[in-house]
Amino acid sequence: MILTVTPNPALDVTYTLGQLVPNSVLRPSAVHRRAGGKGVNVARVLHAVGQDTVALLPVGTGDGELLRAELVDSGVPHEFVGTGGATRRTTTLLSTVDDTVTLLNEPGSRLSEMEWQELADAVHRLLPSASVLVCSGSLPPESRTDAYAQLIRMATRAGVPSVLDTSGAALLEGVAAGPAVVKPNASELRECTGLDDPLAAARALRARGADAVLVSLGPDGLLACTGEGVWRARPSRPLRGNTTGAGDAAVAGIALELAARSSWPRVLRQAVALSSAAVLGPLAGDVDLEYHRRELRAVAVEEVDLEDGHAAGVNR
Amino acid sequence: MILTVTPNPALDVTYTLGQLVPNSVLRPSAVHRRAGGKGVNVARVLHAVGQDTVALLPVGTGDGELLRAELVDSGVPHEFVGTGGATRRTTTLLSTVDDTVTLLNEPGSRLSEMEWQELADAVHRLLPSASVLVCSGSLPPESRTDAYAQLIRMATRAGVPSVLDTSGAALLEGVAAGPAVVKPNASELRECTGLDDPLAAARALRARGADAVLVSLGPDGLLACTGEGVWRARPSRPLRGNTTGAGDAAVAGIALELAARSSWPRVLRQAVALSSAAVLGPLAGDVDLEYHRRELRAVAVEEVDLEDGHAAGVNR
Prior knowledge:
The structure is a homodimer. Chain A is an alpha/beta fold. Chain A has helices spanning 38-48, 64-74, 113-126, 147-157, 168-176, 186-193, 198-208, 246-259, 264-280, 289-298, and strands at 2-5, 10-17, 25-26, 30-36, 53-62, 78-95, 101-105, 132-136, 162-165, 181-182, 212-216, 222-226, 229-234, 300-304, 311-314. The first copy, chain A, has a single domain, classed as UDP-N-acetylmuramoyl-L-alanine:D-glutamate ligase (3-Layer(aba) Sandwich), CATH 3.40.1190.20. Chain A starts with a strand and ends with a strand. Strand 3 of chain A pairs parallel with strand 7 of chain B. Chains A, B: InterPro entries: Carboh/pur_kinase_PfkB_CS (IPR002173), PfkB_dom (IPR011611), Ribokinase-like (IPR029056), Tagatose/fructose_Pkinase (IPR017583). Chains A, B: Keywords: ATP-binding, Kinase, Nucleotide-binding, Transferase. Chains A, B: GO terms for molecular function: ATP binding; phosphofructokinase activity.
């Protein structure tokens, strides 16, 4: 079972609009609501491809009621930690005219010390049946920045590898706890290392404690910096669609292959294939399973030869 | 008591943002939630100025829970009709950079025949203690377009004057029922009459059955076309602020003076003063009471002499 933890989940609402024109009255032609937050999206993708998973998340008042109801309906296995604050909402404005995706992200409510402890206790209780721990998304406001680091250390003690997908101080402190993989995107990586070159920045994060750094490069795929080498993986073709949740699908692919102890090229292929399939899914956490099957064979993976900067094709 | 009916209420959420840039991730610096819908805003303003009022509205699932809780907390007297569908949400995006106000309005859920009947029964029960009936806002999806007309006729039979503030077919059919006042804005008026000139369009609505037509002209104030003459009222100065709810505050002013059987110039003065005070209030339904007191003396009202197009100052 792959355990995902989402400390700052959200009710994800998607409005389909014409053009997003500021200073006007906009009437969404479609409104979709679902349980969200990055770890919930990861679990949703894992569940869709038949992987045993549990999404662990705190759920509070306000939009928390709708989040609970939708997640129960979805069939994605989950465990809730009930909290006193209001669960936040994130709103995605999808324009059908110019394909822009605009996100309105509420900050969320802080967790009390006791609520954090309950969440950590639940991780501790679930770890013995977990093959991978995924820590995903922002921390709630006023959290200790080492919150993910504590969970990662707990997993390491239980012999469970961790995947960390967050940003800023939570990423830097989490990296120090030695996760198996961190998956920043290019701007998160630049922000937390101060380095423009993704490879140099990924190496800097490895030097700080991460076993491997997989950088998501949007439509250009993934760059992997590992103890066994450096790889680049590219999707077989550019895609148009909803990119919200594509990074979460990549994390699902990473966790899936980490659980199977696959080679890095296979990890990358899976991550890029699921990420592409997610762009074609209508909402964050949806994947086009047929496209995923085809793309898994079509992703281009090449090992980067660091001596002469040459990238050689790899097909294992 | 002034009775307001809001068949399609909403949880009003206001996000305070920097610039609204499409295709970006926006993090609101402040999030406010309150019970909304035009008739609820009208009741809120009436309550704020000390006028006895009751807001009558259907409330369903989803955001209905938050709407209920907020309205109870607000102290605004209200009566709920419980319904099975989800209550909608409207989101206001307030940019602090360029003062734009962008609205995201969900359509709402349809009311069943039985739910409509319960709402009408509640109006019938409350009318004997009402001095004015206010019918405000859009009808829920799939409503009979004569829904407001039925309520207005019920009020007329009970000897209670009605104020109607809606648009499209609901406005046209409502006008035919003979409300004391309809308050379209310039674009609603143009849309439903096909006439560009506000005075000509207002006369057309009077000819269709409205006793008086008060057209809101945004920052330019109000134009009143009545059986006793035509008046223009202008705020004393241009104002910057949140214009959402300014029209509802104007309706509150109209209802307030209609209940007091005031002269048209007094009705207009009150409507413009409350509307201006609402622009200075942070959220729809808030009014700056001190500004309202001062503006009530400062609004310029002039009678429009139709013979020579000359507008003469009026001070009664």
